[in-house]
Amino acid sequence: ALVWGTSVKHCPQNVGKEHVLADEDVVQILKKIMKVYAAVLVCLCMFAAESWSLPRRSDDSDPNVAVIQQLVSRIDALEAGLEAEKVRTKQLEDENGRRVAFAAYMTQTAGVAASRGAIIPFSGVLTNIGHAYDPTTSAFTAPYDGAYMFFVQADISADYRDFLLERNGSALVYCHNDGSLRRIACGSVFSLKAGDRVTVVQHSTQGVLDPGRESVFSGFRIH
Q1: What is the band of 17 on the pLDDT scale with cuts at 50, 70, 90?
Q2: pLDDT tens by residue, 109-144
Q3: DSSP for 3-50, written as a single string
Q4: Which residues contact 196 (CB under 8 A, 6 or more apart)?
Q5: The pTM is what?
Q6: How far apart are CA 7 and CA 178, in angstroms?
C-alpha cells in the first residue's frame, strides 16, 4: 500500500472526480450522437442531389450504383462510431453508479480520552456518497472491490501519541505524533474487497483527542 503522512494540517479536496459522470459529460455524449444523425441526413441529401445530377448512358442500366456504394460505406462508418459512443456511455454510466466518497468529523463537546483499542468516533457526516460510511459505528464498509484512498487528521493534546487505520481489525497504517505537536495526520491507499471494514482505532494510552471539524476521517473510491 502507498502510505504517506504529515504532522501539519491538511484538508483533502475534490475527492474521486476521475470516475464521476458529470452533467457536462452527458451533454457532450448527446451532442456527438446528434452529430451522427445529422451526418446521416447530410449523406441522404447528397445522395438525392447526386442522383439527379448524374448523366445517364445508354450502356449504364443503373448510374447510381457508385453513389449508393459510397453512401452505404459512410453509413456503416457512422453506425460503427455510434455503437462505440453507446459502449462508452454505458461504461461511464456504470462507473457513475459506483461513486463512493465520505467525510466525517468528531462531534463531541469535550475531549476524547486516550483508550487503546477504542474506535475513534467520527459521528458528524459532512458527505456520504454511496452511503458506505456508518456514523453510528464510525466504520467504512467497502461496497465494491477496488482501490480506496483514506485520510485522517485529528487535533490532540501534546502527550497524545498515536492511532491506527485498520482493515477488518488489522492495523495497516500507524499514525504517530513524533514530538510535542498538536495534530496527527496521515493517509493511505488500500486495496479492498466488497465488505471490508475500515476504522480509525486509538493506540495511545495517554492524552486527549480534541473534537470538532478539524478532526476528520475521510475517504473515496479511486477505481
Answers
A1: very low
A2: 889 999 999 999 999 999 999 999 999 999 999 999
A3: EEEESS-----STTGGG---HHHHHHHHHHHHHHHHHHHHHHHHHHHH
A4: 141, 142, 167, 168, 190
A5: 0.60
A6: 8
